[in-house]
């Protein structure tokens, strides 16, 4: 490969005594696996750069499934994620690593990813809207097209006060049955616009993306979600009770 590629590290692990194996998300080649030789050595200047959430320029070589990293430059410092937003970023990384096929280009998704990480780094409130928008973008790029604004049974436009049941490969059909697959027209409109003004629409969006992503993730749990569940009780234990 001749040119430089914009990239982020999704995940890294030791490979031999001095090297790292990295999963990269690149702008024009999608998910790429590379070996960074000598990156773990004491004298390596790459230790700080080859971390998640650091914008990179990279070049690699080789013809096999696992490439060799030739050059890397950090474009800037790592985007500042900590606490809850760090776990959210790890979730986004794991989602990309699990769902995208090897070396399949997703240039538009790359910028959706960048915007999501930037939103997490700048978040003053809940990180949930940024996560939901990225999940919906990911589903769209995977070809998972869903019409949120029309009833799949009649073709008529949705009504905010009506209830609709989600059916895979069909869409949303007006229904009087209320269960985990039920959504109000108002909730569907929020999904279509990717605008979640309150907790009700955010919860509905999370419920939908969990259902829609399940076929791609299979039955294997996400490690980032397990880590976050461990983090929440610890955080609560460290937070003193408020005195009313």
Describe this structure as you would to a colleague.
It comes from Mixta theicola. Involved in DNA repair and RecF pathway recombination. This is DNA repair protein RecO. With 244 residues, this protein is α+β, with helices and mostly antiparallel strands. Among the domains are: 70 residues, Nucleic acid-binding proteins (OB fold (Dihydrolipoamide Acetyltransferase, E2P)), CATH 2.40.50.140; 76 residues, de novo design (two linked rop proteins), CATH 1.20.1440.120. The chain is built from six helices and eight strands. The strands form two sheets. It has a five-stranded mixed beta barrel with strand order 1-2-3-5-4. Strands 7-6-8 form a three-stranded antiparallel sheet. Strand 1 and strand 2 form a beta hairpin. Helix 1 packs antiparallel against helix 6 and helix 4 packs across helix 5. The longest helix has 19 residues. The N and C termini lie far apart (62 Å).
Mean of all residue-level pLDDT scores: 89
**Helical content band:** 25-40%
Q: Give the structural class.
A: alpha+beta
Strand order of the largest sheet: 1-2-3-5-4
**CATH architecture verdict of the domain at 144-219:** Up-down Bundle
CATH topology of the domain at 144-219: de novo design (two linked rop proteins)
Protein name: DNA repair protein RecO
Domain DNA replication/recombination mediator RecO N-terminal: 4-76
Function: Involved in DNA repair and RecF pathway recombination.
Family: Belongs to the RecO family.
